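testing teh design pipeline on a random one, pls ignore if ur not involved
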């Protein structure tokens, strides 16, 4: 028989009171990376299963509310049920000073899938083709050409671009690009990029990048074409001088006098 029943009850009450705090400490989210989006910091957090998303200060993730962030120490403060915890960047994440974890081709390919690589390249090439067509049409408009010749030139340009796209083998090119990404970025850097592309801003980047590239091409092509006369003049100066024409040698035999 327990001689101290009140102590046993109070001890049980203490354990029950501490249970929420213990639970809060055991299932802290993982702080993977931080991103500046121009207005506020975005924090990439993951739960115990590895599922994650980007969260702003004041928002909640897995029951934890993001309270504050110290940029100097890279510490994120979160609160839940009266408990306050500080999260540091997880091992291998961006900016934590740990040795970077090498990326694999699978890591890079997962990012390219998130970026919708094939769709992005096809849209970019289409935008480039349209920009070149406009520039070519502007250039042909300054030349004396018949409408039939202009139509033939435009058709040739479209056929040439189609052949170029087919020869590029965009789907097969993805594996080569994945190797380049794996050799260039760390695993954490690829993960941070993949996380970004899951956000509305990241999806907008994918959807609107071709339009931006087209407008950039339209902006650059006239400037490049305006430099052509100078380049042609430079090419003429660079060409080797022509050899002087040979003068026929005079005959050694004097002509007979009549």
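output:
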């Amino acid at each position: 028989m327990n001689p101290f029943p009140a102590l046993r009850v109070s001890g049980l009450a203490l354990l029950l009171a501490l249970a929420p705090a213990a639970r809060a400490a055991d299932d802290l989210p993982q702080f993977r990376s931080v991103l500046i989006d121009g207005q506020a910091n975005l924090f990439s957090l993951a739960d115990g299963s590895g599922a994650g998303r980007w969260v702003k200060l004041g928002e909640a993730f897995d029951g934890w509310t993001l309270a504050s962030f110290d940029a100097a120490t890279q510490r994120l403060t979160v609160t839940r049920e009266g408990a306050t915890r500080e999260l540091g960047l997880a091992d291998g994440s961006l900016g934590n000073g740990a040795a970077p974890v090498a990326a694999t081709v699978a890591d890079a390919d997962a990012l390219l899938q998130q970026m919708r690589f094939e769709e992005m390249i096809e849209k970019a090439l289409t935008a480039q083709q349209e920009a070149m067509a406009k520039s070519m049409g502007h250039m042909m408009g300054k030349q004396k050409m018949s409408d039939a010749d202009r139509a033939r030139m435009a058709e040739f340009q479209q056929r040439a671009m189609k052949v170029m796209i087919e020869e590029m083998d965009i789907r097969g090119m993805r594996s080569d690009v994945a190797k380049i990404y794996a050799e260039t970025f760390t695993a954490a850097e690829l993960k941070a990029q993949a996380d970004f592309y899951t956000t509305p801003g990241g999806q907008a980047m994918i959807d609107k990048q071709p339009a931006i590239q087209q407008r950039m091409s339209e902006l650059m092509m006239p400037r490049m074409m305006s430099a052509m006369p100078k380049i042609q003049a430079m090419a003429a100066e660079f060409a080797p001088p022509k050899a002087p024409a040979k003068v026929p040698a005079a005959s050694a035999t004097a002509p007979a006098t009549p």
